[in-house]
Records
---
Amino acid sequence: MLKIQNLKKSYGSQVVFQNLNIEVPDGGILTVVGPSGIGKTTFLNILAGLSSADAGTIELNGKQLELSPNRRGTDVGVIFQDFNLFPQYTVAENVTLAPKVVKKENKQEYQQQCQELLKELDLSDKQASYPFQLSGGQKQRVAIARALAMKPGVLAYDEPTSGLDEESTNRVTEVIQKLQKRGVTQIVVTHDLPFAQSLNGQVLNFGTDVDR
Ligand SMILES: Nc1ncnc2c1ncn2[C@@H]1O[C@H](COP(=O)(O)OP(=O)(O)OP(=O)(O)O)[C@@H](O)[C@H]1O
């Protein structure tokens, strides 16, 4: 369970949001929508531990997350809009780097996990490719595999359909639904209303549901 209580964030005198309360059950999908400049990315950055909050708490399975850019750990995995893949590494190296270096998993463990994730995300034939050799949708699935390799409690996506065609967008929906069946809790920030509706999750509309 992801439990957000009384979360508040301001930039100077501008309150971006306050009194934000929301609960997402394990395996739940929360879609975060709202107009440009309303605070969606700010919310995602706080959740990801990339930005501080002024007040409030975020609890994941009873454990309070540190709400500052100093947070360590792998509680929340984020798929950024530009994917942030390492261009000098192959797909398989992108997926195994953090389990190897950060989690210090043994080679057999991280390699096996990588094979499973690439298979699940339909990327087995791309494992030796470099990011520049992939389509946008493929790069995104590598970013998802790389995040999942760290076994996060929550997986969050920033505008996952931006720049994708209809077929790739449908693919993203399928991946998110597949991960939901596996019990992964997911937060999806999006402008794309038809896509948000297709996910059939709980909706947080920053334009209408949030105090400022
Ligand atoms: N580092 C910052 N310093 C000051 N103000 C900021 C900062 N980051 C964001 N803001 C302001 O906070 C508000 C929310 O921005 P945010 O990027 O979270 O919106 P958004 O909903 O993600 O927009 P978009 O959909 O266009 O990405 C905006 O008014 C923005 O100008």
---
Amino acid sequence: MRASQQDFENAMNQVKLLKQDPGNQVKLKLYALYKQATDGPCNVPKPGVFDLVNKAKWEAWNSLGNLPKETARQNYVDLVSSLSPSSEASSQGKRGADEKVQESKDIVVTSEDGITKIMLNRPAKKNALTFEMYKEIILTLKNASTDNSAIAVFTGAGDYYCSGNDLTNFTSAAGGMEEAANQGAVVLREFVNSFIDFPKPLVAVVNGPAVGIAVTLLGLFDAVYASDKATFHTPFSHLGQSPEACSSYTFPKMMGSAKATEMLLFGKKLTAREAWAQGLVSEVFPDSTFEKEVWTRLRAYAKLPPNSMRISKELIRNNEKEKLHAVNAEECTTLKARWLSEECINAIMNFVSRKAKL
Ligand SMILES: CCCC/C=C/CC(=O)SCCNC(=O)CCNC(=O)[C@H](O)C(C)(C)COP(=O)(O)OP(=O)(O)OC[C@H]1O[C@@H](n2cnc3c(N)ncnc32)[C@H](O)[C@@H]1OP(=O)(O)O
């Protein structure tokens, strides 16, 4: 839900009442978001090199680039609420550098060495994504876009990276399939938007097999590192479904339509090396050294100048953003109808009753 003007004004008043100084970095962030929310993108000349305070403020504001006013307003409200005493006591906790943050039992978020690490933590269910997990990830990405970290990294606990959408999302909804399909389309659209709009480098550390939306989303990541044990599988037709997470656009663009068709229509499962050959994976590592090599590298990347990385990502992503949002909207509308189709309902019932396994 977007923050209203009233929420924004309440947040401004809350800042004045803060008992603890939030520190210079947070104050700069608040200033930048306030300016962006009220005046839009930075439009004043850069102060001189000796005007240190105003130069720091200008740089913070300027680093927000073309962030829309409404998003800046929302981020301001979120940031203030993360500083208020009530939310300090909440499960989300306060964000900052080198802090550990326990998000929930199924999504573990830590912030360390300039990296926000988002670990899917439902290993007994192969990290399948519940409705609650989608919502938590949306919030986590929103927070990570304004915290002190330089990059954000997704990975999975246990032997799987993620087995995709939890198929029981559709069978356990109180209002039945129709209600689940409506809810699913809204959540999915917002979920994918939060990846399209994420402003910092986003990296996937694919520790094991990935299925469905866990694979398609990779087309929206900036780098994908995979263990040689990982596989990549999108069994949409087997499930009577259709592609999501902008993969109907990113996959043909990345690997050509013939290879994209094998994955998205025929459900061909790729090994990590095949996925690398198709451009879906940046690099494959032997499983025995995967974690050590990848995290060493990521810690080094997280030390690079963060503003430079954001600006470079913005240049790359801005060419595509409008298109990606349009594709996402269309895919969600299509999927909503698919979820109510006989083909899909039969496939999900088969999975749930274990008559067939993919
Ligand atoms: C609202 C937004 C919607 C966005 C839409 C996205 C589309 C997709 O993501 S489509 C892809 C959906 N995923 C699947 O079709 C995978 C289904 N799972 C399997 O095929 C298999 O479980 C597996 C190949 C992933 C693993 O097989 P394995 O034999 O090694 O282990 P299992 O005994 O099957 O699994 C252990 C445990 O985990 C449960 N589980 C695994 N994946 C899912 C899932 N996607 N949804 C729900 N539950 C899942 C599985 O049922 C087992 O549970 P029990 O131990 O309780 O039986």
